[in-house]
Structures are given as C-alpha cells and as structure tokens.
Amino acid sequence: xxxSHPSELLIRQRLLALTRTLPSARNGDxxxxxxxxxxxxxxxxxxxxxTRGSKCRKLTKVVSRLTRALGVVREHDVALLTLDELASxxxxxxxxxxxxxxxxxxxxxxxxxDMALEIERVNLEKLQRKALAAVHCLxxxxxxxxxxxxxxxxxxxxxxxxxxxxxxxxxxxxxxxxPDRLHQVRIAVKKLRYVLEVxxxxxxxxxxxxxxxxxxxxxxxxxxxxxxxxxMRIRAxxxxxxxxxxxxxxxxxxxxxxxxxxxxxxxxxxxxxxxKLLELCDYVTSAADRPASAA
Length: 295
What we know:
Elements: H1 6-26, H2 30-50, H3 53-87, H4 94-121, H5 124-138, H6 149-173, H7 179-203, H8 209-238, H9 246-285
C-alpha cells in the first residue's frame, strides 16, 4: 500500500505526536503532559474510522488508559496554574493560596507516580506496529492514494452523530448557569472537534475555521470547568480534617465567590457562542445531503 494513503497518514501523524510527547510527559513536563493527553484523544477519535472489531477495541483500550492517567495529572496542573494567576491579585489571601497549593501538590505527586507507571506499561513500538497493521488490513490497497471515500463517508456519519449530540447538550444547558450541563456541552464540543479534525485530514483539506471555533468554545467551557473544579476542592478542604482556621476559611469563602463570579462572566461569553455552535451543528448535519467530497 502506498505510504501516502490518507488513512495510514492519519494514524502515523497521531502516533508521531504521541511518541514525541510521552517521554517528556513521563519526566513531568507540564506542557508535554497536556500535549500527550491531546494526542491520545486524537488517536482515539481516529482509530474507529480506520480500524474495526477486536483490534480497534484493544488499541482504543490502551490509548484510553493513557488518556485517563494523563488527565488526572493535567487537571491538577491546571488548578496549580490557576492558583498562580490568583496569587498575583493582592485582594486574594496568600495563606489560603499556599494551603491549596500544598494540598494539590501532594495529590499531584501521588497521581504522577501512577501516570508514570502507566506510561512505562505502554510499548510505543508495539502500539505503532499494531495500529498500522490494522489500517493495512482494512484499507483497500487499490484505492487511489489521494482519496479514501469509504473512510470519509464513515467519518461524516460520525460527525453528524456528534453534531446532533452537541445540539441536545446545548438545548439541555438552556440559558442559565448550570455547571454540570455546561460540562456536557464541553464534552460534546470536544468530541465534534476531534472527529472534524479526522475528516479534514482524510480529505486533505486546509479548511480549519470551524475547528478553530470549536476549540475556542472548548477552551472557554474548559476554563469554566476548571474554576468549578477548584471551587469543589476548596469546599472539600473546608469540610476536611485539614480545615483551616476561621480566618483562612473566610478567605477561602471570598475566593469561592471570586471564582463563581468569573464563571458567570465566562457563561455570558458562552451565550455569545451558542448561535455559532448551533449553526455549525446544522452545517455538519446537512452533510448527509451533500456528496462526500463536498461534505
């Protein structure tokens, strides 16, 4: 099979991103942990398109374990970065920030050890060999190197399902601030974004405006979710056996109110995204009525 075949190239690109970032992630690099986590998600979005059956399930299981292990550490890294931002504000209590940072660092150290073990369990060469072998078995060897219409039709159908799921999530979230439902919107946005990236790469298109818009919405909703997670951690600290003094507890209450205000300001920005997101969903779902190449 020609090595430039879109399906093989799709997997090679994602494997390369993963192999480049995992070693640095294993060494604790914050940026590499984030990039490796994104690489695993892109890999998971691509595997069902170019593989199938038990091979697909086994490969996806390996990559999913990496996503989870990287994810919990990344969440702590984001929380620590948020505390660094808050520490620059003179109105925020330094004592409360230092207490939260200490607890988060202790948790991160434990989770990082688990993540490192999970990374060591993964044989990247074996993963690459099996993933490419699965692609070779599925792709038509006689198909033109510059096209993969069967795979493209498959990814379009998947994109339509993701777009419909996003529409439902947006409708369920409504127009008021409901963190759990907005988190579901974020997940749906993320899933649609990654499948559209697969469609773009398979079709060898350079069109990225809609993907960039989804990423902006994902970042906005992600920021909101990060604040909500930090609020939950603060509340858990206040009710734990490590509960601070009354003064620090009062400072933490003020910090919670500050974060809640930030969340509501972000929600106002999200409401401005709603119309664009729904228009994008309509565009994707209408792909069923267009030829695969045009879609």
